Amino acid sequence: MAVAAGAPTGTYVGQKVEELRGQLLQLQSVIGSNSDTLQGQRDRTAGNAEGYHALVANINSRLQIGTTPSNPILVNQWNQAQGQLDQINGDVGILNQLSNDIATNSSTAAYILESVRATYGLGGAVDEDHLQLAVLEDEVNKTVVSIDRLLNELSEDIRRQSSYVGRERSNLTTLSVAVKNGEMFGSSLQNRAFAAAPLTGGG
Predict the structure, then answer these.
(1) Is 175 helix (H, G, I), strand (E, B) or coil?
(2) pTM of the prediction?
(3) What pLDDT is attached to residue 146?
């Protein structure tokens, strides 16, 4: 995504092109850093989710064969699972902040694009200046597309992870009752299941 430098023309417009090119290069560097941060967060969240599901699977496996009520081993694993889920929820907060940062970059890109287009109207330019402006404008447009794509990916990640955390918090609440009872379907859970079961007609 690097912007190729053009030959100096010695004109005021040429100097303006160099200035705008420098601003775009700086912006592209920040966007590259944002993209790396997003990938790092995805890797971290995947690791937390993997640890969370392993803990929940262990708890479920033990409950299926039955165990003592409030088994301290399962209570500890449940607390660890809750901690993993809290970390995933914290990752959502980081993604929200990253989204705000990238939105600021989008405003910067729009400003640079507006400045490039305004520079076409300056007097004292040579043909090479306008050729370089055209290249620069194309690069800014590509950068805008990259920013929009990154924002869309972030929005989807935030939506998906927020939904995931909400769903798993509900599952953990149900699981805590099972751990307290020492079995997958304790009396209270069983009664709730019967109460919630839809009525079906006899055949």
Answers:
(1) helix
(2) 0.78
(3) 95
